[in-house]
Amino acid sequence: MDTQDLTVANITGEDASVETIQRIKDAKEKLGDKLIILGHYYQRDEVFQFADIFGDSFELSRKAALVKNAKYIIFCGVHFMAESADVLTSDEQIVILPDLKAGCSMADMANIEQVEDAWEEIASATDDTVIPITYMNSTAAIKAFCGRNGGTVCTSSNAEKIFNWAFEKGKKLFFFPDQHLGRNTAYKMGIPLEKMIVWDPFEDFGGNTEKAIQDAQILLWKGHCSVHQHFKSQYADMFRKMYPEIKILAHPECNFETIQNADFVGSTSYIINQVNNSPAGSKWAVGTEINLVNRLAHENPDKFVTSLSPYSCHCSTMYRISADGLASTLENLLEGKVENQIKVPDDIAKDARLALSRMLDISAK
Length: 365
Ligand code: SF4
What we know:
3 domains, Rossmann fold, four-stranded parallel β-sheet, alpha/beta
C-alpha cells in the first residue's frame, strides 16, 4: 500500500453547500450571545468550523460548566455529551443535540439495569469496598449511579488520576463501559492482567466465579468503541515496515495489543499536542477517529499524518450531525422553536452532577 492509497482511505463525507454555510452564519449572527455551539473534535469539518468552544469530552464538560450567559447550548457531539452539558449548566439554559440519533455505541453497551444487577452480584460475592467509575461515554443514569455509590466519572485525559483516587477509597474498582480504557490505564499503573476480570452483562456474575471476583482488583465491563476496535496491532507493524521512522500514536480506547505496540498513547488532546508539537518531517500513524486525523494532517502539511487503520474509521453516530441539521436547528430557534432538547430528569441530574463535580475536583488537584 502506498501513500496514495492511504489518502483515499482517509476521505469521509462531502462538504456542506455554500448556501447551508451561509444559513448557519446568518442564524448564528442573529442569535448572537444567546447561543453557544460546542463541537467535539470528531465532528466533520463542515460542522466543526462553527464551534465556539471545541475539545474532547473532558474539555467540553469542563467548559460547558463555565458557560453562564448563553440561553441555547448546541452540542455538536453525541447524546451522552449533551446530557453531561445539561447536568452541568443551569436550569434556565437549554441544551440541544441537532440530531437525536447521534448516540454512542459504546455508551449503549451498558444500561442502568445491567449495572445495578452487576452491583448486587458483586456485593454478594465480596466484602471488599468497590468503587464504581464510569467513563464519560455513558448515560447520565450511569453517572448518577456512580455519584450515589461513592464513585465518579473519568475521561481518557484523567483516567489514571481518577483510578488512583478510587484506590485510595476502595480495594476494587468497577469500571464501565470501556474495557480497553480500563485495562490500558490499570496496566500502565502497574496492575497485572491477572488482577483484572471482564464483566459480561449477559452472564450470571459477569461470567466469573466468586473466587475470581474476590481476587480481582479491577472489574472491567465488556464494552468497547466500535471505531477504535479497528486499529489493530498488525497495522502498526505494517506502517513501520513502510516507514521505519514513523511513530504510532494511539488512543487508549484501542485494544491492549495495539496500545502495547504503540510509541505514544493518550487522549484526544494529547494526540493533537503530540502531532502539532512534533518537528517538520515527522511521520505519524494515528489510532483515533478519522475526522480528527484528517484535520491534523491538514493543519500539519509539513508532516506525514495518516490513520493507523487502512480503512476509514469514522464515528458513524457523530457523523449524524450535519451542517444541514445545524442550520435547521438554528433557524428553528430564530422562530422560537426548540427541537431536540436534551433534558436529564432532576433526580438523575442531581447524582450525575455529584459524580461529574467529583471528577472535575479530582482533575483540578
Ligand atoms: S468514537 Fe466510539 S466512543 Fe466515541 S462517540 Fe463514537 S462510538 Fe462512542
